[in-house]
Design a protein that fits this description.
With about 350 residues, this protein is α+β, with helices and mostly antiparallel strands. Helices cover about 40% and strands about 10% of the residues. It has helices at about 55-60, 90-105, 130-140, 145-160, 160-175, 180-190, 195-210, 220-235, 245-255, 275-285, and strands at about 1-5, 20, 30-35, 40-45, 50, 70, 85-90, 110-120, 125, 265, 295. Strands 1, 2, 5, 6, 8 and 9 form a 6-stranded mixed β-sheet that branches. Strands 4-3-7 form a 3-stranded antiparallel β-sheet.
Length: about 350
């Protein structure tokens, strides 16, 4: 579920400002008084962030706010288990109108916003229970599609119900063990519950499969890698285990290369407390930067007539390089048959 934010100016025809996830917005600290539209039972509920439809702002104060209010929190009536619709009490209505005035004036960090809550397919809903019903109908037609189970789990997660989200994320992982997003979300749920040891295999799976998740935004994939790598370095006794995915990639490169193809071994030094270096390391798991051990490609062929004009690009001191090693000048020949002859 995502939030499409709209300008809060009265009668504005502006376009949506940005799209974000509900977890980025503050929720109501105190419960709100609501009346269940199904059984008319009154109760106090934690509603998350209040979402006011842009139509209410455009039409002005003469319009009733009741039909234009939604919530990001997942909750149901304690009496009849209905998920809406919800009616506002006078106290709640006055409180929301006051918050909306402050929001329109530019006050930040309020538990209210003007926008729409949408599912991944662009459908707008007022309550997470409505989004849940929509996604469950899609799952009924494609029960083995892991993507839909992740979407269902995200509704629960953003709605503050990690207990429900965990089961849906686990189902997604069962259906697609290579789904990096499902592993990342499940690990986050477990870590938030203090079960970090249980999150370790899912963090490892993120690092192993994230390079194939090209359908996700780069910023999201970098965030997934950063969380997974940071969690593993905190939990593992041997930090080298956190980089096993990179080691496996190097082993694959060795196994697939022709026997006569040389390799390049790059020695690098990173300070993981430096933000730039940390991002460089995370980018390696995305496949954007080469691993320390990579294939060099077919040997470079130097034409015999041009051999005498070959220029070294790296300084070489006698005895620094083994005679049978590839020449550091990049010619593709052995050192003893290239710059070593000098």
């Amino acid at each position: 579920m995502s939030i499409v934010m709209h300008p809060a100016r009265t009668r504005s025809e502006g376009t949506p400002r940005r799209i974000s996830t509900p977890s980025e917005f503050p929720g109501c600290q105190a419960p709100l008084d609501l009346v269940c539209g199904a059984c008319k039972k009154r109760g106090r509920y934690r509603v998350g962030t209040v979402v006011v439809a842009p139509e209410f702002v455009k039409r002005g104060p003469d319009e009733s706010i009741d039909a234009h209010v939604g919530f990001t929190g997942y909750f149901r009536c304690r009496r009849c288990d209905a998920g809406g619709p919800w009616e506002l009490t006078n106290a709640t209505r006055s409180r929301l109108l006051a918050l909306l005035v402050l929001y329109a004036a530019g006050v930040e960090d309020l538990p209210i916003l003007v926008g729409e809550a949408r599912t991944f397919d662009g459908r707008s809903f007022r309550y997470p229970t409505e989004s849940e019903a929509h996604v469950k109908r899609l799952i009924a037609t494609e029960p083995d599609r892991a993507f839909l189970w992740v979407r269902l789990a995200n509704i629960y997660k953003h709605g503050g119900r990690d207990d429900l989200a965990e089961g849906a994320f686990r189902r997604a992982v069962e259906l697609d063990p290579e789904d990096a997003e499902a592993h990342a979300c499940l690990a986050d749920v477990l870590a938030c519950q203090g079960r970090r040891k249980k999150a370790v295999p899912h963090w490892k799976a993120v690092l192993q499969h994230v390079s194939a998740a090209t359908h996700l935004r780069r910023e999201l994939r970098l965030s997934m890698v950063s969380e997974a790598l940071g969690g593993l370095l905190d939990e593992l006794k041997d930090p080298n285990e956190a980089f096993e995915a990179l080691a496996a990639r190097s082993r694959t490169a060795l196994a697939d290369r022709p026997k006569d193809e040389p390799l390049v071994l790059e020695l690098r030094n990173w300070n993981l407390s430096d933000p730039h270096d940390w991002e460089q390391v995370c980018a390696m798991f995305l496949g954007e930067l080469p691993c320390p051990l990579r294939r060099m490609g077919p040997p470079m062929r130097v034409h015999p007539q041009r051999e005498q004009n070959h220029v070294r690009t790296l300084p070489v001191r006698e005895g620094d390089i083994p005679r049978n090693a590839p020449c550091p000048c990049g010619s593709g020949r052995k050192y003893k048959k290239c710059c070593g002859r000098e």
